Amino acid sequence: MIQNFSELQISPYVKERLAASRFTTPTPVQAAAIPQAMEGKDVLATAQTGTGKTLAFLIPIIEQQLQHNVPGITALVLVPTRELAMQVLEQYNALRGKKLPAPALVVGGLSEGQQLSAIRNGARLVVATPGRLEDYIGRKLINLRSLRVLVLDEADRMLDMGFLPSIRRIASILPRERQTMCFSATLEASVAHLVNDYMKNPVRLAFGSILKPSENVRFQAFEVATDRKQEMLQRLLAKETGRCLIFARTKRGTERLARNLSREGFTAAMIHGDRSQAQRIAALSGVQQGRYRVLVATDLASRGIHVQDIAHVINYDLPEVAENFIHRVGRTGRAGKRGIASTLFARDQRSEVMVLERTLGILMERMKPDLEPAEQWEQKRLAEVARIDALPQPAARMRRLPGEFLQAHFEN
Q1: CATH number of 217-398
Q2: pLDDT digit string (tens) for 113-153?
Q3: Do 136 and 106 meet the contact criterion of CB atoms below 8 Å apart?
Q4: Which of 104, 196, 286, 288 could disulfide-link to 123, CB 3.0 to 4.6 Å?
């Protein structure tokens, strides 16, 4: 296993840029994918967020662009969300230095003028969401005839969001002689068809076990009456000194929680699908810079958004599907640090929690909520233990699992 980026066959310039950004030890997905991609091979990797996959495709792209100084857009990265696109762009900017032109962002919700200006100023990398890129192509605002590298990042997520028709139409106009890299948390039939249609003998890489929880995350659950969940939440936050990420199921619930927490003296920001791009950026940067200690979010934020050093993830509402739970708790316990994932549930949700545990192969430690007499809580705990052997089998919609479960590596 490669222990340092200096061992990779990459240019001194890229090594310097990595060192300047404080990247020293490659993650497993980087160590495995970068050498293969540097040889020009197509790469298919199942790897979850938190594994450093962004650098796994950006380093080969930058090396290719440094070695072949040709005009035009030579690399395209397709991602499911604006937030993930902005993160990829930020990482590329940190590594390109002054030897490569600024990249172009092609997403909805931001200034079209600035995006088109970057394209016209000679961007060689475009990071885009499929829908907006297809719009630009239809209006003949972008030329992809010089493309050499295509990256499909979080391919399964893009397909879940209905982008398959857009991806197919985009791929149909790209040069056939190109390198394609695909990163996906799962390898379902829809992703497999995409691979068969657009990749040539890809190198297959897989990282992590889908049933092995991260050793860096402690799972705990609190049974609490619905009308006392807010009180329980505030107790958890009061005991936690680090950054906290709270998940609610609805936009309205997110707003209500954020307002209530702010009223109780907690510095809280929120993010959900109805927030503008400027509001989302302000919330994320505010948490990252320490202006807010708490971020309340819907599942929009559970995947593709990285806020460093989240100490505690709290599931105020249970997720709709098991996969959302995985992506929620994957926000903590990164880069070798410890994290806590707490789940609040009502008595009538016990079976849902048990199904979740069975589906994911985990067992959440049942914690005393401190909101009821110890004797009553102990009776509940013993009754639950007695039912463990009779756990129901998970429903079919809960079976979809990512190719990796909460790897404890950082995401770039």
Answers
A1: 3.40.50.300
A2: 999 999 999 999 999 999 999 999 999 999 999 999 999 99
A3: yes
A4: 104
